[in-house]
């Protein structure tokens, strides 16, 4: 019988008020139910927010270095249980356990970095424009923060959001993704063991239409952090703006790699294959487009197709799998529909393009690694995020044309250029419309101590990682001490 999990509200593990549950399914074996989770509603969110609001009154007064001690302990516990946690992520997320170890490491790194920020939450001092006046700024917490997670990196993204929020003195209502809810349970248990006071971190399971909507509309949630699709992000933003809540959105991507004529082709192919097909393309920073210079196009494509067709597609429990299953049937149907419409528009499927069936493939949702060409920038397949193992190819005759193709996207998250020309490399940083740029590397995210986020439809609001996260999860107060013993203001004109 599947284990029954609970919400975590005010330091207690509790069922949803309704008593209803939903199943967490193993993507590598859809016959296996990993657990039953509370199908929460607005009432559960209300209870969690109430607990967070009450806890905020104490937590905000705890000095940041003292908050940091809890994060350091959380990092120690995460490290001690890294193998166990990686296996949990792998079972419910569909990635191999070895790849999930990197995700756990990212959470450890973020815990340690944000704990260090507990002694670096600097304000600024400056000279006033008036005599005998002291001017400075200081950071303060925002209040209750609602965090809405995606399924693809349940441990890393939980850490990337929760740790900055906590170190800044906020309390949190966390919504797990319904496709990967167990990872967040283990995260919360570690925070509980690390000594986090009750009510500071609350976890509510459920679906977006019930829990997510309630979080974005709740009058006592001062900020919402959402990671997911651009379409849903628009709704989140609208709900927050209507009630003047802060909102931070990390959204989709249509990330591109540009391969110039002077590139190391073998390195570029490694980068494109890794960027496109790891995690089955279910990454916001996945490589979705490759733009190749005409002088090396034929050689590049020959090698790329050979490498792609040699990839092993299989379940997460097989560590030799290069491409693992999609998260659910809905995502499978979405990916296949994109491919079919691309064919109808006149695109050519160079390799792949089909659902895999038979044997182990009948226990999950698998799509062949797919490469598509004969594409124009106005086609749907070139414009929309697919979130699957699908790559589209463009041929270009110059760097300038490659940049034009790259910037034609409505998204701008991660971008990469393979070249040996240092001048071109630095020009790319200025020319590419993207929040993260790489030279001679795949379209990845960023390291935990560096800001991460996108431009255009890839993001809105703040950078939530690295030192920039402190700016996202805190408010700046401007403070004056006037010791002139008279009333003075730069906006007043004093009479002689």
Describe this structure in words.
The chain has 496 residues and is of the alpha/beta class. It has 2 domains: 7-251 and 458-479, Aldehyde Dehydrogenase, Chain A, domain 1; 255-439, Aldehyde Dehydrogenase, Chain A, domain 2 (3-Layer(aba) Sandwich). The protein is 38% helix and 22% strand. The protein has 15 helices and 22 strands. The strands form 6 sheets. Strands 14-15-16-13-12-18-19 form a 7-stranded mixed sheet, sandwiched between helices. A 6-stranded mixed sheet has the order 9-8-7-10-11-21, with helices on both faces. Helix 1 crosses helix 7 (208-217), helix 4 packs parallel to helix 5 and helix 9 (265-277) packs across helix 10 (294-309). It is globular.
Topology:
Elements: E1 7-9, E2 12-14, E3 21-26, E4 29-38, H1 42-59, H2 64-80, H3 82-93, H4 97-117, E5 125-127, E6 133-141, E7 144-148, H5 154-167, E8 171-175, H6 182-193, E9 201-204, H7 208-217, E10 223-227, H8 230-242, E11 246-250, E12 255-259, H9 265-277, E13 287-293, H10 294-309, H11 329-344, E14 348-351, E15 370-373, H12 380-383, E16 390-396, H13 399-407, E17 411-412, E18 414-418, H14 422-431, E19 436-439, E20 455-456, E21 459-460, H15 468-472, E22 474-482
Parallel strand pairs: 7-8, 7-10, 8-9, 10-11, 12-13, 12-18, 13-16, 15-16, 18-19
Antiparallel strand pairs: 1-2, 3-4, 5-6, 6-22, 11-21, 14-15, 17-20
Helix pairs in contact: 1-7, 2-4, 2-6, 3-4, 4-5, 9-10
